[in-house]
Design brief:
The protein is built from 15 helices and ten strands. The chain is of the alpha+beta class. The strands form four sheets. A three-stranded antiparallel beta sheet has the order 1-2-3. A hairpin with a 6-residue loop joins strand 1 and strand 2.
Length: 447
């Protein structure tokens, strides 16, 4: 655990106040705080000013605020994998003291932080104000990724916004692919990287002249990926198993409800009884989706009402939800191997797992289950039973093409869908033994 102690190293008046920052046995750093005091007003036992008057009370408050800011910055730095050293400590002191508000403003990670800090007031391309929580999360992930790239590939050398050119992106691509990140994820990272640089450009930060020439990696869509979803039979199986823990029982409720209302994990877990609205003879869930900002109304079908009949599930984090539903599905026997992608676990620090790549391989099905499976199961199971435009309105996909890719529909599926539609339409035609009757009408004109 990181600790901070303030101290004096001189009896001169005024004397510099130093901060001693310890992040472990071999990580102890000391720097000037930029604050001063008369040594006779300093308590060496409390390592703080003796608050005899207003000035000394204010000085004590300033030191306590500095302590809080450094510790908060340290927690963030550990999560992002930043190197903690004397320079880092000096940087945090200068930022806290506002000596140079634009300190290192042209560093890439700092510009990404600018986006995160100002996410609520950023104007999007469509004119709307504020970034979605998922978009902010994407920038946080990008910041962590760039920090790791700096440490591992650039030997901790800082990356400036203007350094993001074609050569830099190629180097980043190569590093990510060697780390087993998927092509799709690499492409998404490059999109976010360009967006961050364009944001910096608007703030008059110098960018590379090659920025507009940078293109993302295109995914090979010829080979369809395995679509992981819960069939209706699997959902029934999950509903029947005996669970020993209340947390698993609660997570199962969320999981089965999610498969019937088709919302993303973040939207699903934010639903409360207040979102349920009564109509003439049925109930519906009404909510505004975080990612799209779209207001949707989803009717609660009888199966969903059955899940909620003995009470609404209590709120849990999406991290716990993902953890618990894997356990639930394992208990239900969903162990058949499937091709899929699974995030690697950081062996030394579990907090850094979020920044590790997803690796393609064969895994037991329960290990591939996450919050995404609710929306995908809804879309896949109800496709063909409910008109596609209605499903798209609920899942909020961009269009029918994107929706069908999402549920894994291939060219062969479209062919069979057409034949099934044709076959069903013929069955619905009324049968008749009468032969077609043609009547010849004589031409009575004198023409």
């Amino acid at each position: 655990m990181a600790t901070i102690k303030f101290l004096l190293q001189s009896k001169a008046n005024p004397s510099n106040i130093y901060v001693r920052f310890s992040a472990g046995r071999n990580s102890v750093f000391k720097r000037k705080t930029g604050l001063f005091i008369d040594p006779k007003d300093w308590s060496s036992t409390k390592a703080m000013p003796n608050p005899r008057d207003t000035t000394l009370k204010d000085l004590k408050t300033d030191l306590e605020e500095l302590r809080s800011k450094i510790l908060k910055a340290h927690n963030s730095a550990v999560q992002l994998g930043e190197e903690i050293d004397g320079n880092w400590l000096q940087n945090q002191i200068e930022i806290a003291n506002n000596k140079n508000p634009n300190l290192n403003n042209d560093l890439l990670v700092n510009q990404i932080q600018e986006i995160i800090d100002n996410s609520a007031s950023i104007t999007k391309q469509n004119g709307e104000i504020g970034l979605s929580s998922s978009r902010v999360k994407g920038y946080k992930t990008l910041q962590g990724l760039i920090t790791r790239f700096q440490a591992e590939n650039e030997k901790h050398k800082s990356i400036f916004v203007k350094s993001v050119n074609i050569d830099f992106v190629e180097s980043l691509k190569k590093w990510m692919l060697n780390k087993k990140y998927s092509i799709g994820y690499v492409g998404k990272t490059i999109d976010n990287l360009k967006a961050a640089c364009n944001y910096a450009k608007k703030n008059e930060i110098q960018t590379s002249l090659e920025l507009d020439k940078i293109i993302r990696l295109k995914k090979n869509t010829k080979t369809p990926k395995t679509i992981v979803y819960l069939s209706e039979e699997e959902q029934k199986k999950i509903a029947k198993i005996e669970l020993k823990r209340e947390a698993l029982y609660n997570a199962r409720k969320w999981l089965l409800l999610g498969c019937l209302i088709g919302q993303r994990g973040g939207d699903l877990l934010n639903i409360t009884p207040d979102n349920i609205v009564r109509y003439d003879d049925f109930n519906a869930i009404e909510l505004t989706q975080q990612k799209t900002g779209k207001y949707v109304k989803i009717p609660l079908i009888p199966e969903a009402e059955e899940i909620l009949k003995d009470g609404f599930p209590y709120k849990i984090s999406i991290q716990k939800f993902n953890e618990y539903i894997k356990e639930v599905c394992k208990e239900a026997g969903l162990i058949e191997p499937l091709e899929g992608i699974k995030r690697q676990v950081h062996k030394k620090d579990k907090k850094l797992t979020a920044y590790m790549p997803r690796v393609k391989g064969s895994y037991p099905k329960y290990k591939l289950v996450g919050s995404h499976i609710c929306r995908r199961s809804f879309a896949t199971n109800f496709y063909g039973k409910i008109p596609t435009p209605i499903l798209i309105n609920i899942t909020a996909h961009e269009n029918e093409k994107v929706f069908k890719i999402y549920i894994g529909k291939t060219t062969d599926d479209y062919m069979y869908d057409m034949m099934k539609y044709y076959s069903d339409s013929k069955k619905k035609k009324p049968k008749s033994n009468q032969q077609p009757h043609f009547e010849v009408i004589k031409n009575t004109s004198n023409g």
